[in-house]
Amino acid sequence: MKQLNVGILGLGTVGGGTYTVLKRNATEITRRTGVEINVVQVADRNLAHAKALATDADVTDDAFAVVNNPAVDVVVELIGGYTLSRELVLKAIANKKHVVTANKALIALHGNEIFAAAKANNVIVAFEAAVAGGIPIIKALREGLGANRIEWVAGIINGTTNFILTEMREKGLNFADVLGEAQRLGYAEADPTFDVEGVDAAHKLTIMSAIAFGMPMKFEQAYTEGITKLEQVDIKYAEELGYRVKLLGITKRTDKGVELRVHPTLIPEKRLVANVNGAMNAVVVKGDAVGPTLYYGAGAGAEPTASAVVADLMDVARLIDATNAQRVPYLAFQPEQVQDLVILPIDDVQSAYYLRLRASDKPGVLADVTKILGDRSISIDAMLQKEPDENETEADIVILTHITVEKNMNAAIAAIEALDAITAKVVRIRMEELAK
Question: Cα dihedral sign for 236, 238, 243, 249?
């Protein structure tokens, strides 16, 4: 029987899960592919751990020994980062080895270079596990929805932030308290910056956007805003108005260009994606023929991510003898048809808005605010005016607006904050319906 020899770089959480799934489901995998997939070599700095787990493979602490090993057909890169991993992946490709990776930062930052090298060397680079863990969203965008003109993609694509926001809503806790709990439970890293500032989600969104619209990776142009400044009171007010707050990655094709943005977002609680809680992920894709479609599942973890890594290995096993022309293109579109589309700056993006104003409790304030909004063609959809607490002279005013251009909203907020009666910075959260 035909064999595919695999070398794994990194035997940590995902690497260990990949090795385990390959061994446990070997019979099923062979039945599906007609190929025996064998791990022949692994590289990890923790040799003792690697040897205890990978008992049937050669173990080394030299990753380059794997990418230079003539017996290895496919290199599985699971070490993370985007410096050493880039060097290893490009070396593997130069050695005519296929590559499977779960590294979203590597693909988002260096995917254009990596795909060009892979095309030149007629090898496969597969990266399903780079986005949303075990959810097969890359295959859905690239193949399952191939008949559609993709209009937009919006997703909860970071489990850490979704866990934090769920806990803030359900338990009434503040961000700092929930972050500490997330770290204790292992949902958040000791340094959670990439997660809570939206960088991790922006990496994943960049990849989905490139595939959805057939354009190069443009991570450096993504607008990124995290959840660190979110206050529990805004999550509570959103709930009163029938909305949930989620950190969303959103990319849309418009007449003026492509929106590529990550930020906290109010979405109606009746939407399925609004009810995705805990550390789970979900992605909504709108195609012109199929309409909105929802993909839900575990976005991280050893075996959920390993599920995607092994599925990629199975695709390599099936297509290893094919030419580039016979394979599905990396970005869904033929390489010569990939277009360098314009990414809209956040000032030109259109959205509805949630605004929270802290104002002195005196007549005329609301009239001044509505005039400022009206002068900039910003119409109000709903309003919530809170009574001041006992012995207080200030109260919250919450306004939901209809869709407007971000730069108009920026000007309106600046004018509102200049009013004598406004006693604090205006809190602004974007809103999306995700309906059509």
Answer: negative
Question: Residue 120, exposed/middle/buried by CB under 10 A (0-12, 13-18, 19+)?
Answer: exposed
Both structure tokens of 71: 């017996």
pTM of this structure? 0.96
265 lies in the same domain as 329: no
Phi, psi of 246, rounded to the nearest 5 degrees: -130, 150
Instruction: List, for residues 199-243, the tens digit of each pLDDT value.
Output: 999 999 999 999 999 999 999 999 999 999 999 999 999 999 999
Reported confidence tier of residue 361, pLDDT bands at 50, 70, 90:
confident
**CA triplet 19, 50, 64: central angle to 5 degrees?**
90
Look at strands 350-360 and 404-405 and give their pairing: antiparallel
Range of the domain at 40: 2-133+302-337
Measured between alpha carbons, how far apart are the two ends of the chain, in Å?
A: 49
Q: Check if the beta carbon of residue 208 is closer than 8 Å to that of residue 281.
A: no
Comparing C-alpha atoms, which of 7, 24, 9 is closest to residue 303? 24
Closest to 95 (Cα-Cα) out of 75, 112, 110:
75
Tell me: do 158 and 252 sit in the same domain: yes
Total of domains in the chain: 3
In a domain, 98, yes or no: yes
Q: Token pair of 88, please?
A: 């290893």
Instruction: Determine the Cα–Cα distance for residues 224 and 205; give it in Å rounded to an integer.
Output: 11
Catalytic residues: 204
| Residue bearing tokens 């992920």 | 281
The string of pLDDT tens digits covering residues 167-204 is 999 999 999 999 998 998 888 888 999 999 999 999 99
Q: Is the pLDDT of residue 106 over 90?
A: yes
